[in-house]
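Structure catalogue
Derive tokens from sequence
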Amino acid sequence: MIKIQFPDGNVKEFEAGVTGLDIAKSISPKLAKEVLAVSVNGETWDLTRPIVKDAEIKLYTWDDEEGKHAFWHSSAHLMAEALQQLYPNTKFGIGPAIENGFYYDIEPGDGVVLTDKDLESIEKKMLELARQKEEYCRIDVSKKEALEHFNALHETYKVELINDLEDGKITYYRQGSFTDLCRGPHLPDTSYIKAIKLTSLAGAYWRGNEHNKMLTRIYGITFPKQKMLEEWIVLMEEAKQRDHRKIGKEMELFTFSQSVGAGLPMWLPKGAMLRDRLEAFLRKVQKKYGYQQVITPHIGNVNLYKTSGHYQKYGKDSFQVITTPQEGEEFMLKPMNCPHHCEIFKFKPRSYKDLPLRFAEFGTVYRYEQSGELHGLTRVRGFTQDDAHLFCTPDQLKEEFKKVIDIIFTIFKALDFEDFTAQVSLRDPNNREKYIGTDENWEKAERAIIEAAAEKGLKTTVELGEAAFYGPKLDFMVKDAIGRKWQLGTIQVDYNLPERFELEYTGADNQKHRPVMIHRAPFGSMERFVAVLIEHTGGKFPLWLAPDQAVVMPISEKYNEYAEKLSELLNNSDIRTVLDDRNEKIGRKIRDNELKKIPYLLIVGENEMNSQTVSVRRQGQGDMGAMPVEEFIKKINEEVNSQLQTIYNY
């Protein structure tokens, strides 16, 4: 008999060899139908894998990320089996689960070029195989056996992967006629997969290296019920309408140019005004918390980033080193702001009385993203971080950390991000060479984050291996208006860069001490934050933030003069107003300006001109009737002031 401990602390005895599925059946038939995977001592396993010694377990269903991961990973294998039957000479790369679904990278072979038209036939074959209830069988193999098997099949990509693996830790998974190199976990059998949608095709370099062969990547998503797929399709249609690239073009917020370079956004006047207001908002919040603005160059000597460790860790993801006519002098486009802020700290001797010091900068940084990974504003090569670095004593650390959490709360409240969780990102305990610094400093930093989050009452999850190379962090995961999850805002504790830069302050004991450093970016980057904000709001920004708050539309040219004077009056009253005096019918003007998401549409004709009024339409609410101009001005200013008061008094 073995002892099984459940998440609530209860312990039950089972015979050795019991499976997660057996345990679920012992609890209830309903749970047994819903469970998809099991955690055994913190490691996710197949439901059918025998548990042979005492263990702590947790059962995962579709409501858990781990459950979805097992479901979608199994679906990737099912798609591979379908591809193998439809295109027998296909070579397979990797097929992981991702945040929403799965993909498989393949080389179809025999000159086959897959197109979107082929996806439907692959879906049909997958459903046919799923109904056969093929079991996913886990098989331990030696490295020699694995190499012999995949060499015989001429699976060059699998052979390359096996060569990187440690003998004794290699497993296959087999279902039906398909065998794959895989660690798992997987579903018990294919019948769990009831609804399938293959979503797109893309090119992907093998192992993400642009010097390797371009493979075909097939994306898909699956569900345990057909109704869930139908709901997802509706959601995707809504997401398409909210796409920040589409709305950004309609609202004239930003653009890209191949002449300038891929992944380098240019902010148009309305987008620049939007960004300016976001920056002004954060500056005002930061001022309340004692931050000081700094400005640093767009480049830095390469030795700066070698000292910080960024060159060693991220050199390949940065742009090439810039050389100068002076021999041996090398610079880099700035990949991070923190080394520059460390040098600002070193500008003069510091005392414990000076701390905490809080340096903030809207600093533009540059990373070389592969062209295939660029995506609108969410994945770019040049972006501006709302960066700040706090230098404090160890005793001040937790309190400063909690104040940063308060700033993030203020931002989320102001922009209606009400549904969020916090992720505590820690070191991978099995791969510590990825990180710099001592175990002692890491443990202190991790403890400070966990305690601060608990004291602020945050709902947290813990993710191993997601820490920055210099320290653990707290990442905020936000759900938008249609339920998608985004990572917005991060706070990191760092004992290591102060060591590497030899930062010091004089303590009350008149001795030299190292400060602790907090890295924080509530928005993350201005580009990505604006993209998420556009998709969250559908471009319908709160009135205080909207690029244009009102548009004046004369119903014919006869009223252009009145419309022009009205537009000037509103702008002089701090209401951002545009004039649409095109020679178009009023219905067309209304449609066009609603597409631009302008909150207030003001229609003027003979009645309005004679009575010095405006006819008001509110975006999404329709006709509000006519009102005197002064009354409209008062209404708008009261609405904006009310919004701002709520924000700043939060």
